[in-house]
Write a structure and sequence with these properties.
By secondary structure, this protein is α/β, with parallel strands linked by helices. The protein is about 35% helix and about 15% strand. α4 runs antiparallel to α5, α14 crosses α15 and α15 packs parallel to α16. The structure holds flavin-adenine dinucleotide and iron/sulfur cluster. Iron/sulfur cluster binds next to α3 and α4. One of its GO terms (molecular function) is oxidoreductase activity.
């Protein structure tokens, strides 16, 4: 049993999928899911649970699957996780629950993420009953930002009995799940269905509502009667490298590139009305999930050569293992230990090349990773028509600038404690806006903690009034 291999995920072949935007992985069948669930040892101490930031009872939901109760499996997961079909697809399980699975020590861990996805998809297909919510609202809470942090806080607060309104700047809720992560990795229909589940719990979502512009946080308290506000505005402000040529046509931030393609459907141009020009050869700078998504999107848009340009080695690549593997299989080419120096342009102002320099790794830096050092005289040029910068994102400053009394750190992130309390009374925050760009499940974990803190805060406030 210990050495048994985890069951493979059925997926489109690389040749097939690099030409379409349909989901790459097809999901376990019921038979495969049962066989994989049978691998679980049902450990009493369940170390896997300690690796889950929202503390899903993993052995319990797996037990339901092995005993043919997928409806109860999804109900068990939903006790802790409002977006399991999303998490089953995009969580970096290899660094979380699966890393701590006892089977990982001697063989391959239980495929917890794939089982979670199977159960969650079953739940979506059978339209299981929403969780029960109290009849009388306990108070009004506003959530700013409909990403994983805000949606999770909203769901948990609605279940506790609050009247919750989510204000979202874009025309669709979901945050990065809608505008960042591509369709071939996370179908938008899945995100919409999980968000519908939150609406069934009574959560109201107002789109095209920009905090700091359409209204301010203070107005929500003073004019709209909200008693607490949770800010989950994410990290949507792209970073650039500050190298020559970044203002040329054909240079994109990954955010802009992916938003044009995912949210504005540039891959369906001209039916969609949003063009995206990439030419034949594309360089993507960076090697996180955002970079892999950009590179694989460029391939699907028809680029002949797509290069990942990354200044460290493969061992330091931060993307999920599965995304890296899929990118390689699809033909993305890797220029590792390489840094861009300058973007070259044509007379008409379009990108024509990317000058790079080779790097070697020196002593570890503050992050604990070995510092990349340029190798003198090793410059070379990649002929490219477009460059996508995927080197990280920072916080959008709008809410911070328009909310007096809200403290931020030197990077512009809102300062909040573990529970989500900020420096301003009644205002809570969590997710990427506090931590800087991180993961879906960490943002969800922050949303959950903040929901608990908001509940306590309002209960105490009401008790004092009485
Ligand atoms: C391309 C890409 C791929 C990724 N892949 C993965 C992955 O595979 N696995 C993983 O775990 N993580 C991944 N991440 C990271 C993950 O998506 C984020 O950590 C997570 O979405 C953060 O959630 P959040 O709720 O804090 O913010 P977001 O998801 O950014 O949501 C914030 C929301 O707030 C809205 N907003 C912003 N300002 C305002 C305002 N003033 N008023 C109203 N609304 C506002 C935004 O429009 C947005 O909808 C990826 C990120 C990107 C960009
Ligand atoms: S650690 Fe692994 S084997 Fe043990 S209960 Fe968790 S998933 Fe099952």
């Amino acid at each position: 049993m210990l050495m048994s291999l985890r069951h493979k995920m059925p997926e489109q072949t690389p040749d097939e999928r690099r030409k379409n935007f349909k989901e790459v992985t097809l999901g376990y069948t019921a038979d495969i899911a049962k066989a994989e669930a049978d691998r679980c040892l049902q450990c009493k101490t369940a170390p896997c649970r300690q690796g889950c930031p929202v503390e899903v009872n993993i052995p319990a939901f797996i037990k339901h699957l092995r005993e043919d109760r997928p409806d109860q499996a999804v109900a068990e997961i939903k006790q802790k996780n409002n977006l399991p079909a999303v998490c089953g697809r995009v969580c970096p399980q290899e660094h979380q629950c699966e890393k701590l699975c006892v089977l990982a020590k001697k063989g391959q861990p239980v495929a917890i993420g794939r089982l979670e996805r199977f159960a969650a998809d079953y739940g979506l297909s059978c339209d299981c009953e929403p969780r029960e919510v109290g009849a009388e609202p306990l108070g009004k809470v506003a959530i700013i930002g409909a990403g994983p942090a805000g949606l999770t806080a909203a769901g948990d607060l609605a279940c506790l009995g609050y009247d919750v309104t989510v204000f979202e700047a874009l025309h669709e809720p979901g945050g990065v799940l809608m505008y960042g992560i591509p369709e071939f990795r996370l179908p938008k229909s899945i995100v919409r269905k999980e968000i519908d589940g939150l609406k069934q719990l009574g959560v109201t979502i107002e789109v095209n509502a920009i905090a700091g512009k359409t209204f301010t946080i203070d107005e929500l308290f003073e004019e709209e009667g909200f008693e607490a506000v949770f800010i989950g505005t994410g990290a949507g402000l792209p970073h650039f490298m500050d190298i020559p040529g970044e203002n040329l046509n054909g240079v994109y931030s990954a955010n802009e590139f992916l938003t044009r393609v995912n949210l504005m459907k540039a891959y369906q141009f001209p039916q969609s009305g949003t063009p995206v020009h990439i030419g034949k050869n594309v360089a993507v700078v960076g090697a996180g999930n955002v970079a892999m998504d950009s590179a694989r999107t460029a391939l699907r848009l028809g680029a002949e050569n797509v290069y990942i340009v990354y200044r460290r080695s493969e061992a330091e690549i931060p993307a999920r293992a599965e995304e890296l593997e899929h990118a390689k299989e699809e033909g993305v080419q890797f220029h590792l230990l390489t840094a861009p120096v300058r973007i070259m342009g044509s007379e008409k102002g379009w990108v024509s090349g990317l000058e790079c320099i080779r790097m070697e790794l020196g002593e570890p830096d503050k992050s604990g990773r070995r510092r990349p050092i340029p190798v003198e005289g090793s410059e070379y040029t990649l002929d490219v028509d477009a460059v996508v910068m995927a080197i990280g994102q920072g916080p959008n400053p709008l809410v911070q600038h328009t909310t007096p009394g809200l403290e931020v750190n030197k990077n512009g992130n809102i300062i909040a404690n573990e529970a989500g309390f900020t420096s301003k009374e009644g205002v809570f925050a969590g997710g990427d806006i506090v931590t800087g760009a991180a993961t879906v499940i960490l943002a969800m974990g922050a949303g959950k903690k903040a929901a608990v803190a908001i509940h306590q805060f309002l209960q105490e406030k009401h008790a004092v009034k009485e």
